[in-house]
Design a protein that fits this description.
4-stranded antiparallel beta sheet, two-stranded antiparallel ribbon, 6 strands
Length: 262
């Protein structure tokens, strides 16, 4: 059954994906994407590693899972090829993916998502979901291995891009998006660094507070001991004074009585 007969062609999401499938039917030097034969809402893609980076020469394959509300909601992107930047078989965190629906714009497309992914690969991981911090040497090794990587559905991915060489012109909107993604990656890295600094400050404050409390404990003990030692002495003194006053009064009365008898 063809996709045209399987889906409601009046649905805005279906119409949009059908149009994008036609636009992306021919591979380019940078990327290729197509829907599965039996599922318009799951696509497989291949992107070439960005030049002048540790991913240069690599081919990276993955899945795009599109919600039924597409293009009003963003897709989820999953890498299948080991690459050292993103975890495999896990939804990765991009400003254009399902992890950030607040930044998604319906005018963006699968092509936009692929260009964003390519631009995002050399950026710092910054601890985002699905990110890895492999060394450049490890990523270069994986890039060389990716040439022979095969998908069970699509076959050898390197041949997908090399079969036809067609350049793609990036629109001004797409160039702006790539710049936004680069800035967001930098913001995430700065936010993570700031959060780490705040955590260290809190730890130092906690340690200093505990140290101050430990110092104050002996002082408090001394004060309590002093109070204990002072209070009984004061009571004894008052008691002695009262006793002597009573004795004096008694002696005074006895003396007065004795004087009156005479």
């Amino acid at each position: 059954m063809s996709l045209e007969n399987k889906y409601n062609l009046k649905s805005p999401g279906v119409k949009r994906l059908m149009r994008e499938a036609r636009e992306l039917a021919e591979p380019t030097e940078e990327y290729f994407a197509h829907p599965l034969e039996d599922n318009l809402f799951e696509w497989h893609f291949t992107v070439r590693g960005p030049p002048n980076t540790e991913f240069e020469g690599g081919f990276y394959h993955g899945r795009i899972l599109l919600p039924s509300q597409y293009p009003m909601q963003p897709p989820n992107i999953i890498l299948l090829t080991p690459n050292g930047r993103f975890e495999v078989n896990k939804k990765i965190c991009l400003s254009i993916s399902g992890h950030h629906p607040e930044s998604w714009q319906p005018s963006w497309s699968i092509r936009t998502a692929l260009l964003a992914l390519i631009a995002f690969m050399p950026t710092p991981a910054a601890g985002t979901i699905g990110s890895l911090d492999y060394t450049p040497e490890e990523r270069q090794i994986l890039a060389k291995k990716s040439i022979n990587w095969e998908c069970q559905i699509c076959g050898k991915i390197a041949e997908t891009l090399s079969s036809q060489s067609k350049s793609s012109n990036i629109t001004q909107e797409e160039a702006s998006l790539i710049q936004q993604i680069a800035l967001k990656a930098e913001e995430d890295a700065n936010r993570k660094e700031k959060s780490s600094d705040e955590t260290n400050i809190r730890q130092r404050v906690t340690i200093n507070t505990q140290s101050a409390e430990n110092i104050n404990e002996p002082i408090a003990d001394v004060i309590m001991e002093t109070e204990v030692s002072i209070n009984p002495s004061t009571v004894d003194q008052i008691f002695n004074v009262v006793v002597w006053v009573i004795v004096f009064v008694i002696l005074l009365l006895i003396g007065r009585r004795f004087f009156l008898l005479e």
